[in-house]
Amino acid sequence: ITLTNLSRVFRTQDVETTALSNINLTVKQGEFVAIMGPSGCGKSTLLSILGMLDSPTSGSFEFLDDDISIYSEVKLAELRKSSIGFVFQSFNLIDELTVFENVELPLQYLKISKIERKQRVEAILKRVAIDHRSDHLPQQLSGGQQQRVAVARALVSNPKIILADEPTGNLDSKNGDEVMTMLRELNREGTTIIMVTHSEKEGNYADRLVRLLDGQVMVDKASQVSMPKD
Ligand code: ADP
Ligand code: ADP
């Protein structure tokens, strides 16, 4: 990912708000980047643009060597479904569907056959150690387990990148540590992760910290406490 002089300005009636101002940021395949900064600094806006849910007002967004800032919404939606896995603070699982069905959903959108869906969902549930809860409903699981299901759902389509928005915001510290350890493991296995967090401790699970202030990159550096990599 290469963002060059990227800005996002919101216009509502007479009011203009610059949410992002001349952002320059490169994320290489296999990196684990934490985005931090105070409320209102532009984290959500940046994550929405990276997740192809929103487009910049100016500047360019290169993804796998294509400038996608000029893509139509339809083309962006297609690219989003095949390239991005989302993990949210509030899990966003569908209450009426079982664990298996929740994780299967992205593969249905991608029109993957039933046989292949079954194989892939079973493999990924095993990977996040929640396969024994396959037929349960989300509400029958702990918060940490629900977030593991959400991570499985994000991963099942083999995305190029995982975007995580405060992934442990609704978890106690034990479950939070567990989810962070899992994300770090997935990163070690090659998954690119960009995560928004308020927590300095969580920032240290990442390799790199990007600090925003008033829509600008203030700091972009290796995370201070480098967590053991093996
Ligand atoms: P935003 O994405 O706009 O920062 P959130 O919904 O994430 O908004 O947070 C709402 C408020 O709660 C903000 O003021 C934020 O600073 C605070 N907050 C959210 N998560 C945490 C956290 N893990 N630790 C401390 N403060 C938090
Ligand atoms: P953060 O996630 O760091 O809390 P946001 O990206 O949500 O920050 O917001 C950055 C700035 O852009 C804030 O001043 C916010 O009020 C503004 N903003 C975000 N979304 C909109 C919108 N849809 N319309 C108008 N202003 C917005």
Please provide a written account of the structure.
It is a single chain. With 230 residues, the protein is α/β, with parallel strands linked by helices. It is 33% helix and 27% strand. It is built from seven helices and ten strands. It has a six-stranded mixed sheet with strand order 6-7-8-3-9-10, with helices on both faces. The protein has a four-stranded antiparallel sheet with strand order 2-1-4-5, with helices on one face. The longest helix is centred in the last third of the chain and has 16 residues, at 173-188. 36% of the residues are buried.
Q: What is the radius of gyration?
A: 18 Å
Overall form: globular
Number of strands: 10
Rounded to the nearest angstrom, the distance between the terminal CA atoms is: 26 Å
Tell me what portion of residues adopts beta-strand conformation. Answer: 25-35%
Bound molecule types: adenosine-5'-diphosphate
SS field, number of helical segments: 7
Q: Give the averaged pLDDT, no decimals.
A: 93
Biggest beta sheet summary? 6 strands, mixed
Listing every helix as H and every strand as E from the N terminus to the C terminus, the arrangement reads EEEHEEHEHHHEHEHEE
What level of helicity do the residues show? 25-40%
- List low-confidence stretches: none
Structural class: alpha/beta
How is the largest sheet built, in terms of strand order? 6-7-8-3-9-10
